Amino acid sequence: MAKQEDNEIKEAVSEEKEESKGKKSKSEKEFGLTDLPGIGPAVAAKLESAGVYDLMSLAVMSPAVLGDTAGVSAAVARKAIQAARDMLDLGFQDGMEYAKKRDNVFNITTGSTTLNELLGGKGVESKAITEAFGAYGSGKTQLGLSLAVNIQLPPEKGGASGKCVFIDTEGTFRPVRIKQIAEGHGLDPEKVLKHIKIARAFNSDHQMLLAEKVEDLIKKQGLNVKLVVVDSLTAHFRAEFIGRGTLAERQQKLNKHMHTLMKLADMNNLAVYVTNQVMAKPDVFFGDPTQAIGGHVVAHASTYRMYLRKGKKGSRVAKLVDSPSMPEGEAAFYVETGGLRDV
User: Fold this and answer.
1) Residues 6 or more apart from 310 whose CB is under 8 A from it?
2) Residue 25: its pLDDT value, please?
3) CB 216, CB 197: distance < 8 Å
4) Which 3 state secondary structure label does DSSP give 225?
5) What SS3 state is found at 58?
6) pLDDT of amino acid 16
7) What's the pLDDT at 134?
8) Are 247 and 264 in contact (CB under 8 A)?
9) According to the model, what pLDDT value does residue 181 have?
10) Whole-angstrom Cα distance, residue 268 to residue 263?
11) What was the pLDDT predicted at 343?
């Protein structure tokens, strides 16, 4: 009898917990854009068409940007933003709470154990931008193509069972190469290709627009996007903005683009991998004269920075230049038909 009573009490408690969870999720779902003051259905439709679907996206906007996007006055924009912030209870949190929020961060294997170790042990991290810069033929695109396949692997094999969005600015995406890497992992090549969304960007504005449209794929179409690849990040910006007179405008646009990718990665828990071009500095007499394009704007926005170069006997060498938690180091790997492998 005592055991039966204990079981009944446990069942009642679990039911109460489930009910409270249901109520909590229901109340959270009840808050939408139209619950904010000054935001009606018409204004909400404008915001959604601009990629603003939830309160968090609106809460982090400036009144000027919200006013231009939604076509409302600055006063209405300020009131709506403040209301969104109050509903979400934005503010400070302690380190333990923040650590718990990062429990859902995942990693994508590169295919090379040494390269994974260089990036922290498991590969490319979500909620972060990983940048690879280097000369042509250094393996930047090959790493991007490998990640596009590896993201589709199950978590126990170093993937996330997710889809990839590939923004191609230089015409480097090759379905044949994807098929080779997929076969190397024992995956169905056609299925792998179907899970990669490719878009060819023809100028910098088109590239920035495509990055903003990734939110539509996630929110409207419900795609499980876990990786965004931009190959290459600076090609169009470098071609369109020529001379020192246009440098400030170029850097501003590039900064905005990087922050769009940063916000996309953080709010949707996905990984962003970008490749970057380089230039040679003629005033460097000792050491490697290679320098990444984009200056401090790209450097500050990237969470992890790798410099790729050709090594001995056809190998590639990756040097970790910047990381929030890992020391500088190097890793050598080979690019083969089935993907990346250790030397």
Assistant:
1) 135, 137, 138, 316, 317
2) 40
3) no
4) strand
5) helix
6) 45
7) 95
8) no
9) 97
10) 8
11) 87
The two structure tokens encoding residue 94: 């302690």
Alpha carbon distance 77, 74 (integer Å): 5
Backbone angles phi, psi at 337, to 5 degrees: -55, -40
First to last CA, the chain: 66
CA 177/CA 175 separation, integer angstroms: 5
CATH no., domain 2-88: 1.10.150.20
The amino acid at 283:
D
Tokens of 267: 């709010």
Which residue(s) pair with 333 in the sheet? 316, 342
Mean pLDDT, consecutive 10-residue stretches, the chain (343 aa), reads 50 48 44 88 87 85 90 90 87 88 94 96 96 95 97 96 97 96 96 97 97 92 96 96 93 95 94 95 77 93 96 95 94 96 91
Phi, psi dihedral angles at 103 (to 5 degrees): -65, -25
Residues 6+ apart with CB under 8 A from 95: none
Distance between alpha carbon 264 and the CA centroid of its chain, in Å?
6
Write the pLDDT tens digit of every residue in 141-185: 999 999 999 999 999 999 999 999 999 999 999 999 999 999 999
Instruction: Please name every residue paired with 133 in a beta bridge, in sequence order, or none if there are none.
Output: 276, 307
Q: Which amino acid is at 244?
A: R
CB 46 within 8 A of CB 69: yes
| Helix axis angle, 175-184 to 140-150, nearest 10° | 60
Locate 244 and state its tokens. 């020192």
Question: Which residue spans of the chain are classified as CATH 3.40.50.300?
Answer: 105-342
What pTM does this model have? Answer: 0.84
Identify the CATH number of the domain defined by range 105-342: 3.40.50.300
Q: Is the dihedral of CA 89, 91, 97, 100 positive or negative?
A: positive
* CA dist., res. 232 & res. 216, Å (int): 22
Give the side-chain half-sphere CA count within 13 A for 145.
26
